[in-house]
Amino acid sequence: MLVVKSVHTYYGNIHALKGVSLHVRKGEIVTLVGANGAGKSTLVNTICGMAKPSRGSIEFNDRAIEGLPPETIVRRGIALVPEGRQIFSAMSVEANLLMGGYIHRKNPGQVREDMDRFYGIFPILKQRKGQLAGTLSGGEQQMLAISRALMSRPDLLVLDEPSMGLAPLVTREIFAIIRELKEQGRTILLIEQNARAALKVADRGYVLEIGKVILEGEGPELLEHREVKRAYLGKGAKQIWEA
Amino acid sequence: MGRKNWLILLGAAIFIAAFPWLVAQFKAISHYVDVMVFAGIFSLVCLGLSLLMGYAGQISLAQAAFFGIGAYASGILTTKFGFNSLVAMAAGMTISGAIAWLVGVPSLRLKGHYLAMATMGFGVIVNIVLAEEVNWTGGPSGMADIPPFRIGTFTIDGEIAWYYAVWAVVFCALIFCFHILHSRVGRALRAIHEEERAAESMGVPTARYKVRIFVLSAVFAALAGSLYAHYVACVNPSSFNLMWSIRFMLMVMVGGMHSLWGAIVGTVLMTFVGNEWLQVFAELEILVYGAILLIVALFLPGGIVSLVPGRIFRRKAPEATLAEGAGS
User: Fold this and answer.
1) Which residue from A69, A79, A132 is facing B320, i.e. has the nearest CB?
2) CA of B299: how far to CAs of B85, B111, B128, B282, in Å?
């Protein structure tokens, strides 16, 4: 569905992506883990059109999308839950959801229907629909951000650091939502610093380090990989020392 | 638009309607009606500019130039070609909008304040053209004897008639703006204003919206310019230079650029300050403007409307502002 082929992107003068390739198949959850500065966000920006790659190609549903503006890419079917949520905090919860359905202006009935569905899934959003979105708690804001992104009825959902800035308990809740989305058969590209939780929920994963994919594999397999354990999970370090 | 805005609108309309009668009671200030006609005309410019500054987050230093294009279009088309006033007005608005589109498309595609630079240059060019094209514009001394505004057989004549005509237009423009802001377009504009990147990733074509708002602000300015030309009956380039663009910006900032009411309040206040109360400073006037701008920017970034208690004029609740601060 999504095929990224040896993409190079510059972030200012920094060569942030040095030939990254990855793919996401329909119905999969693919995660991308890596430390700060590994280029995760730059990759998200490149896929979603906020940054232009200098080389390489990105195909989505068999059409080239590299270099297109973000508003076109949403229409092609990729929705983003941005890093730090970026909800419209001075607008009501309902207005936020309506913004999510922005590209379906010809179809207000469908937007209404989708909105009611998310109100059903997240009753807290329904309770607070008239409230300003900025007054929601962090976890509620993340639910809103995910619902808002799904309002565009995307083929692929890109989640950029959904656990960032959330308490551990809330993070668990968000991952439960991601698991549910997976059961609904949605295709997801999940970018996370919390490698353990991300690899547990994902079908496959990629490990990014200073602009390059250094490892790829099935989720559980990567979880057991000792390089990953050493670098990102912290546990098992002792065994590596001994080995 | 909400009930709250209708109520404020009604209150404002009653005040505006009663104003000429009120000032007529006092000989010393009976000429305030004339000042209010100018305030109304400038309000039209500032409404457009307020949308541009408050919602698109852009600054234009060419509003006086668009104002001038509207004024000269009316002046030239009615005196030299015998056009109907309304047709000349529409022509000025069209020309202005088209030029704004040409200037806006390249400069608003770039992130940052390129529009401010582009419009500053454009404003200077317009001023030079107005001063040099003597055959058309009368050069630095301008053109006189612009005929009064006529709609069919009806002529707007006299201070009071002008006062009510201009403020009726202002109220129509205000309702029009509120309608835009409370539609899907307005929601998109607010989203752009809050989180531009998130709005983009919802599919909002941000550059196109900014261009449209800029064009709208230019059309409003041209409409005001046309009224101005007919009211004062003579125009010259000095009313349309960079200083006036800065004054319009100041009016919007003093009133509060995140509120349409702020634009009106600021314009009325600054028109009185400029036309009446600051005359004693004569040449030093520009220093006083600088001081006002500094004070507002430092101590009252939300403008005068932010002083109004409660949430009468404000859209943002305090909690939302806090959350925003924490999020960025």
Assistant:
1) A132
2) 44, 28, 37, 26
Instruction: Provide CB contacts within 8 A for A143, sequence distance 6+.
Output: A122, A124, A125, A174, A177
Q: Domain count of chain B?
A: 1
Which B residues in the span 182-211 are in contact with A, Cβ-Cβ below 8 Å? 184, 187-188, 190-191, 194-195, 197-206
Q: Is A87 on the interface with B (CB under 8 A)?
A: yes
- Structurally, chain A folds into a number of domains equal to 1
Instruction: Give the residue among B232, B226, B227, B224 at the shortest CA–CA distance from B251.
Output: B224
Q: Looking at residue A233, what DSSP letter applies? A: I
> What is the greatest pairwise CA distance in chain A?
64
Q: Pick the closest to residue A134 from A126, A147, A144 (CA basis).
A: A144
Segments in B60-205 forming alpha helices (H) = 63-81, 85-109, 114-132, 134-137, 159-181, 184-194, 196-201
Go through chain B and tell me how many residues it has: 328
Q: How many CB atoms lie within 10 A of CB B152?
A: 7
Residue B170 token pair: 């202002």
CA angle B293, B296, B298 (to 5 degrees): 105
- CB distance B58 to B115 below 8 Å: yes
Task: With respect to residue B323, please indicate whether it lies within any of the assigned structural domains.
Answer: no
Residue B251 within any structural domain of the chain: yes
- Interface contact A214, partner B, CB < 8 A: no
- Domain range for B187 is 3-316
How far is B309 from B30, CA to CA, in rounded Å? Answer: 31
Residue B278 tokens, joined = 């600051």
Rounded Cα distance, A95 and A65, in Å: 29
| Cβ pair B241, B127 in contact under 8 A | yes
> Would you write out chain A's pLDDT as a tens digit for each of its 243 residues?
999 999 999 988 889 899 999 999 999 999 998 888 788 889 999 999 999 999 999 999 999 999 899 999 999 999 999 988 899 988 899 999 999 999 998 898 999 999 999 999 999 999 998 999 999 999 999 999 999 999 999 999 999 999 888 888 999 999 999 999 999 999 999 998 888 889 989 999 999 988 889 888 887 888 888 777 776 665 544 444 444
CATH number at residue A54: 3.40.50.300
Helices (H), A151-215: 168-183, 195-201
Torsion of CA A201, A205, A207, A208, to 10 degrees: -100
- CB of A243 within 8 Å of a chain B CB? The answer is no
B27: in domain? yes
Structure tokens at A93: 């919860």
- Taking the mean position of all CA atoms in its chain, how far away is CA B262? 12
This prediction has a pTM of 0.83
The CATH number of residue B107's host domain is: 1.10.3470
